[in-house]
Amino acid sequence: MTNQSARYEPLTAQNAAVVLVDHQVGLMTGVRDISTGELKHNVVGLAKAAKLHKLPIIVTTTARDSMWGPTFPELVEALPGIDIIDRATVNAFDDERVSRAIEATGRKKLIFAGISLEICAAFPAMTAVGKGLEAYVAVDACGTFSQTKRDVGLLRMLQAGVITTGRHRHALGEARRPDRSGVQQVVESPERGR
Predict the structure, then answer these.
(1) Neighbour order of strands in the sheet with 57-62
(2) Do residues 59 and 32 make contact, with C-beta atoms less than 8 angstroms apart?
(3) CB within 10 Å: which end of the chain, N or C, has fewer?
(4) Is the pTM of this model over 0.70?
């Protein structure tokens, strides 16, 4: 569990990194708790906001050349040239390359999003908490295969000390930044236009 008496320190461009786990074409087809259009918009918005803030971004896939396919094209387009780590482990943090990439950022606050929420986002976030890091999950940039899986995943993360929130909280965390209007544009909700 997290230390409830610890002093609050907001997410900043200097202390946070983003880890996007398994936002793959094949996994998107099974998502049932959020529309795929909204999910793509939310993930791309988080990625663009992280890029605008110059946060380190780590992107992973599982079995991209076989079962689950590539990262969805809109995310690849939003992050040109990013190295996507393909792994065989269930928990992204268990892959040595992913673990090294996270450690190399030097950041103590990690923002996770993934498909599926209860595995791909939850497992590495809970592992991060176990390693003494602060883990956030942008739940609106995650998807899963049923409402029950979503509910159980959220409860499990909360019990482990993971902070659950939406991508807007992370992307707009630095409200005093002079470029905050640019961030707001990239994370604007689909209902209000793109």
Answers:
(1) 84-87, 57-62, 16-21, 109-114, 134-138, 163-165
(2) no
(3) N
(4) yes
As a whole number, mean pLDDT of residues 83-99 equals: 96
Q: Which of 120, 141, 162, 187 is catalytic?
A: 120
Q: Name the domain count of the chain.
A: 1
Q: How far apart are CA 168 and CA 165, in angstroms?
A: 8
For position 31, which CATH number holds?
3.40.50.850
Take residue 9 and report the two structure tokens written for it.
């320190």
Query: Does 24 fall in a domain?
Result: yes
CB 70 within 8 A of CB 64: yes
How many whole angstroms separate alpha carbon 37 and alpha carbon 150? 18
Q: Are 50 and 171 in contact (CB under 8 A)?
A: yes
Residues 46, 141 contacting (CB under 8 angstroms) = yes
The residue range of the domain holding 43 is: 18-175
| pLDDT tens track for 116-165 | 999 999 999 999 999 999 999 999 999 999 999 999 999 999 999 999 98
Is 120 among the residues known to form the active site? Answer: yes
